[in-house]
Amino acid sequence: MFCTTVNAIENSLAKQDIIAFNVANLNTKGYKEIDSNNYNHKIVKTSKNNQNNVDLTKQIVYLNVNLIDLKANVAVLKSQNKMLGSLIDLKI
Questions:
Q1: Residue pair 43/10 in contact by the 8 Å Cβ criterion
Q2: Which of 1, 12, 18, 62 is the most exposed place for a label (fewest CB within 10 A)?
Q3: Contacts of 12 (CB under 8 A, 6+ apart)
Q4: How far is CA 13 from the centre of its chain?
Q5: H-helix or E-strand containing 50?
Q6: What pLDDT, on a 0 to 100 scale, did the predictor assign at position 31?
Q7: Helix, strand or coil, per DSSP, at residue 8
Q8: What are residue 43's DSSP bridge partners?
Q9: CA 16 – CA 70 distance, rounded (Å)
């Protein structure tokens, strides 16, 4: 029960790292964006005309969606913790 939620939080944090890495390399010549939605971390190919294919608008959207996911997973973890505490407090 807790493992699934913890794994989801870890995945959200990994996506956060990828988004931060993409934004940090926004002006790096020849940098190819890492797709944070692909679990294989596939690198997106850029055309020969572009020196950089990082779209800041897209990264901000990914950041906000990831933040919502992270908050939801933390809320689930808190609920699970509260339910477990209530079960332990039951008197037999």
A1: no
A2: 1
A3: 66, 69, 70, 73
A4: 5
A5: none
A6: 84
A7: helix
A8: 34
A9: 10
Q: What is the 3-state secondary structure (H, E, C) of 49-67?
A: CCCCCCCHHHHHHHHHHHH
Q: Which two three-digit tokens encode residue 70?
A: 């992270």
In 60-91, which positions are buried (b, 16+ CB within 10 angstroms) versus exposed (e)? Answer: eebbeebeebbeebeebbeeeeeeeeeeeeee
The tens-digit pLDDT sequence of the chain (92 residues) is: 568 888 988 999 999 999 999 999 988 888 888 887 765 545 555 545 557 778 899 999 999 999 999 999 999 989 888 888 776 766 55
**Residue type at 41 in one-letter notation:** H
Instruction: Provide the pLDDT for residue 48.
Output: 55
- Pair 75, 18: CB distance under 8 Å: no
Distance CA 71, CA 75 (A): 6
Select from 74, 34, 81, 76 the least CA-distant residue to 54.
34
Amino acid letter for position 53? N
